[in-house]
Write a structure and sequence with these properties.
This protein has about 160 residues and is α/β, with parallel strands linked by helices. It has one domain.
């Protein structure tokens, strides 16, 4: 009997510290996390919760494009060549990347695509380990400084 009482008290203690934030999601299911100054997306988790955890960047871009009803792999021509953008909506150009060092070029890519398209630049990071590691932290700060929307989608 004492062991049940002990576990009951522990569960009350744990639940006391678990609380939800106020929500207020935008049309894409995302919002600003005031504690970390990042954007993160909740409804995307519902869409992708049954997916296997580890996939490549294209897989996550396909899922996110479907979720926000965006177009994948738009191509823009310019005088020196072409540039492909991961996802495009009527108002945004979006570069998506995994939570790895290779995503640093997303900032360059999305800024150039924004210049060519006249659309709002957005960087989306697909967080596969639910940890804000140094690359994610750096990208969020760089995006904030440059006025680029940063979204972190948890997987």
């Amino acid at each position: 009997m004492r062991i049940h009482y002990f576990f009951f008290l522990i569960s009350l203690f744990i639940n006391f510290f678990a609380y939800a934030h106020d929500g207020s999601l935008n049309e894409k299911g995302c919002h600003a996390d005031t504690s970390s100054e990042n954007h993160h997306c909740h409804d995307a988790l519902v869409l992708m919760k049954d997916e296997v955890k580890k996939h490549n960047e294209n897989h996550y871009n396909d899922l996110y494009a479907k979720f926000i009803q965006g177009v994948r792999e738009s191509v823009y021509e310019y005088e020196k060549g072409i540039i492909k953008i991961d996802i495009e909506t009527p108002t945004e150009v979006i570069e998506g990347g995994l939570d790895k060092r290779s995503s640093i070029d997303s900032v360059h890519q999305v800024i150039f695509a924004s210049i060519l398209s006249g659309k709002k630049p957005v960087v989306v990071i697909y967080d596969t380990n639910n940890i804000i590691d140094p690359i994610e932290y750096q990208l969020s700060k760089i995006c904030k400084k440059l006025g680029i929307e940063y979204r972190r989608v948890l997987y």
